[in-house]
Amino acid sequence: MLTGRIFSQRLDRSKPLWELWFVQGLEGGRFAVVNKTHHALVDGVSGVDITTVLFDTSPTPTPIAAESWTPAVEPSEAALVAEGVKGLARFPARVARRAVHAARRPVETVASLRETGEGLGNVAWNLANPAPATPLNVPIGPHRRVLWLSFPLAQLKEIKNALGGTVNDVFLAVVSGALGRWLRRHGVRTSGLELRAIVPVSIRGDDQKGALGNRITAMLGPLPVYATDPLERYRIVSDSMSGLKESKQAVGAEALTRLQDFAPPTILAQASRLNFSPRAYNVLVTNVPGPQFPLYLIGRELQELVPVPFLAPEHALAVAMMSYNGTVDIGMMGDYDLVADLDEFGLDVRESVEELLVVARAQQKPSGVRARAESKQEV
Asked: pTM of the predicted model, to two decimals?
């Protein structure tokens, strides 16, 4: 598959870290656009913002003003060093401003420090207790397989509305069910086994909407692959995610990202590595909400908006979800050799969605109807 081949190749470090592929000749006269951008430039939310700018919101293309554009001169090494020196010179001033702010709001500062300390404690605990070993957490090769599935967004909302929680809880429960099936099929005993998902969380404020850059932190969510009952699995995920929000884990992770306000770049780099340490999680599971209205390119309506996740070292599988115009696409990337049965994992994902739908619809039945159905099953 072309997408797998494109994402198997590293971006050229001598050029800006993005590529845009235009693919023609698809069935029915359709075409596709494959966007490949390094996370150093954008995160999922800003990527969606860029998409809405590149596309039109109506079938009639927006007129483009014929303005001349001259790119800025590429900075020399000396200019980059000079900018770094300027940043170091501004460092004491940033620290002083924070100190003044803290002195003027002592109660707020103490509460924030306490909350941040609790969160950093959670982050430190997760780092000191690495994720369990699995066949997916071994050295990976350079080649990739890519697969995606489409579902009506209404189905995931139906599950969420019937069982409580959030759409993200539904997604984590679906991935948990699929992973459990995949592991058992590969001879792994899942009894008592709970994997960890790294769940990116946007910390982009309303005032930063449309801005470039990467403004995400991460939470470690549970993947209870030991739970074979879909309702039990969903409740474990939903209760755990609710507890994680109260545990200040995301606050602690965000505190690491905010080190850029008062720490030198070398310390910031180390803190960022801690925040996304590969040993702390088993699988990347990311959910990015997309626009819920149709987009157009040169008069053609965009049919699918598919997310393609990335693989970290010693992580052979990643799963992403993106919603667009009433549809959800779940994109999966696997190491070409270690996850040779990615198509079968896709069937596992579909089965997990279907079994949660059955449970959700059973919960919505009137109590009398449900009781009669349960009594028939007992007989």
From this structure: 0.76
